[in-house]
Amino acid sequence: MTASRTAWLPRLVVAPSFLVGFLFIYGLIAWNGWLSVSASRLLPNYGFVGFAQYAALFESERFHVALTNMAIFGTLFIGGAMAIGLLLAVLLDQKIRAEGVLRTVYLYPMAISFIVTGTAWKWMLNPGLGLEHLMRQWGFESFTFDWLVDPDKAIYCIAIAGVWQSAGFVMALFLAGLRGIDDSIIKAAQVDGASLPRIYLRIVIPSLRPVFFSTLMVVSHLAIKSFDLVMALTAGGPGFATDLPATFMYAMAFSRGQIGLGAASATVMLATVAAIVVPYLYSELRTKR
Amino acid sequence: MKLILSAFALATAALAAQAGEVEVLHWWTSGGEAKAAAELKATMQKKGHTWKDFAVAGGGGDSAMTVLKSRVVSGNAPAAAQIKGPSIQEWAREGVLANMDVLAKAEKWDELLPKSIADGLKYKGNYVAAPVNVHRVNWLWANPEALKKAGAKLPTSWDEFFVTAEALKKAGIIPVAHGGQNWQDFTTFESVALGVGGAEFYKKALVQLDPATLKSPVMLKTLETFKKVKGYTDKNANGRDWNLATAMVIKGEAGMQLMGDWAKGEFVAAGKVPGKDFICAAAPGTAKSYTYNVDSFALFQLKNEANQKAQQDLASAIMSTEFQEVFNLNKGSIPVRLGMKLDKFDDCAKASSADFVAASKAGSLVPSIAHGMAVPSATEGAIKDVVSQFWNDDKMSAASAMDKLVAAAKTK
Asked: Going from the N-terminus, what domains does chain A have, and what CATH number goes with each?
């Protein structure tokens, strides 16, 4: 009797937030989709125009630059953050003396906002003020590091700043995962004569699979929503060389009175993300061990 | 947020039953500009109305426009917003602006404003906005000390400009102070276009967006001249704000800057005297032309009658001689109202006003595209993208830039 009465209680408690989440996330995604097939310019206007906005979108050179940048930045940021984070976690796992201090130091960059990171790195990477200027003052007259003002290389600067900020966070997640691994397996491997790198590569890292999954989810969402980092660091770059879909969408929808085009670019962004995340999600959650 | 604002508005309305309230959206938050906005507030308060300031910082007004859109869509528009150029007609097309014809006829606005500017404030023949000032965009600002040190003279044509720039470069001074932002790139571009091609070319190519003119040899020459200017700017120009570039000229690190007359405010704030410490001259080749940028307030339809009366008073105050004089003295621009006495204005402003009247009569008064006066925002953005890309990308040829301009001009 008590069991059946309270069976629906958890569902009832969760229902309001689920409903709100559902409405505001999926409902607004649907509204955005509707705007992307409408004739909206300065303000929303619900006249249907078919795929005209998408056609205009794919003809836009700036959008192609934004998509290419998304691919480059996404790969470098996610790959870089994961690799460096994992390396730092493995190194910190060696039971060293100042582990607490070092862990805090590596995690600090995550505490500052992307705007602060962007501004600080802008100063450091600026040829006349930052690294290049410093090196020249120290005597290396021919040293150049003007990637920030080079349309082809500016996107790499954004990746550098992003990886610097997020590597510590990835390190913290992996360290927690590493600490959760059963010691007896490691000891058994050591008794069998396996070297430390081999143990890590063959035993430890494969058993970190769930941690990889959650870290990848967090880091990829940070990569896709990079708006403030780009705006603070290069404001879209020399011309529009470091435009990302998020900044493109903002410029079109809000600065240029082309809400329909902005909505279309947002839908394309969603489709790209879904195409990568949904299969991964499915494959990870399907196999229950 | 909306709840707090509407509660505040309700309380204010209850307290001041007769006098109305005007909520004014603007982005004049820096030094001289903020003082100028405070003058308008004082005028309104003297008439007994309440002024609700709605300042959203951000030089180009991007954030302000975003906030305005959300307010209008939610049905709670402010009384006035700082909107200028074709955006006025874009907003009017949405049906949210108030018709000011009654006031305009009573105060004879048609006689007090040049026709091209008055047309920009109307939608379907009815006034929907009140103009505040006239900025001239095609100015060249120079540091006479730097020019003397380099043994160069102030250029009056683009060929002379490059001679002067070479001399400054040899003397170790940065020839042109520039900020690598897309509106600054275009401000330079439109001065080059006006100087190389003249007012008629400018109007046909950049205002009417005629494809044949956009692909003409004159446009090719304009693009090549424009790209040549880049060689005389420094490497750190990317992303620099306009006032930091002006500071370079003030300090003598750079010799010249191509910028509108708001740069004068920076020189004056640094205690410099026009003619002695800095020179204001028309951009090379554009002495007889005038690129204007008129700031204006678009007036929204309001539901409350007392607020409507206050809004009429606001529009009337904006066009009055007292406000026009005080505001423009503080902002660095000249009054848009014709026939005013300019005794208190400095020499640069007097020169600007004389040129304004002359250009208006000669038909060489042209709107600034860099400042959103000529074409709708979507087209303007696309054209600015092409020009900035051409400026930054060394691999792009002038011919392909012209093709891209033609494509960009078709953006709606």
From this structure: 61-286 (1.10.3720.10)
